[in-house]
Automatic annotation (TrEMBL):
Residues that coordinate or bind Ca(2+): D12, V15, G17, D19, S21, E33
Species annotation: Jatropha curcas (Barbados nut)
Highest rank taxon of the organism: Eukaryota
Protein name: peroxidase
Entry-linked Gene3D superfamilies: 1.10.520.10, Peroxidase, domain 2
Length: 216
């Protein structure tokens, strides 16, 4: 669920800012972002936000926005699963509208090239470090083999250094907040590192052969 809540927050922020517009259902002039290609049949965690909101309304009605709840839930669930923490400014106002087109166009898609995804991140004021951090977190919350291979391929296509990617994985492994708190996360980082090493060895074997064909 932690990865789902982080993804929900990520998809919310990439459209109209972190304003909980992703939580809105169809109503009147509102066409829900839940119907967009990136969210339809894949966005999860709405019921968790609803439960938190319901509990808060009983204790302090009309005080905490859904946007703040979503931001805090994404952060705290990440921390609880052994991930990093970050400061969350509070006081967001909930959106009264949604943007289906923004959701379809602004959120990185699985079939986007690495460069397209990086461009979409930059439009949000984010950089390659943010992209790798988010990609690695999702990768480590799933079976890492194919995700790690895909990430290596994306780096190569974009002309980026695969060694830099491994350094970031090792940084995560060395972080004191991960060691001893999440053996599963440590195992997945180790496994991802091994997959990347094997992929790099394959590239060292085949790339010289490919370059010979290119010269001909």
């Amino acid at each position: 669920m932690a990865a789902s809540l982080l993804r929900l927050h990520f998809h919310d922020c990439f459209v109209k800012g972190c304003d909980a517009s992703i939580l809105l259902d169809n109503s009147g002039s509102i066409i829900s972002e839940k119907r967009s290609n990136p969210n339809r049949n894949s966005a999860r965690g709405f019921e968790v936000i609803d439960e938190i909101k319901s509990a808060l309304e009983k204790e302090c009605p009309k005080t905490v926005s859904c946007a703040d709840i979503l931001a805090l839930a994404a952060r705290d669930s990440t921390v609880l699963t052994g991930g990093p923490t970050w400061k969350v400014p509070l006081g967001r106002r909930d959106s009264k509208g949604a943007s289906l087109s923004g959701s379809n166009n602004n959120i990185p898609a699985p079939n986007n090239t690495f460069q397209t995804i990086l461009t979409k991140f930059k439009l949000q004021g984010l950089d390659i470090v943010d992209l790798v951090a988010l990609s690695v977190y999702f990768m480590l919350n799933q079976e890492p083999n194919q995700k790690a291979i895909a990430l290596v391929d994306d780096f190569r296509i974009a002309g980026l250094d695969v060694d830099w990617l491994q350094e970031r994985l090792n940084d995560m492994l060395d972080a004191k907040r991960l060691i001893g708190q999440s053996s599963t996360l440590k195992e997945r980082i180790d496994k991802s590192n091994q997959v990347i090493k094997e992929k790099k060895r394959e590239l060292q074997v085949y790339e010289p052969q490919l370059s010979c064909f290119e010269k001909k």
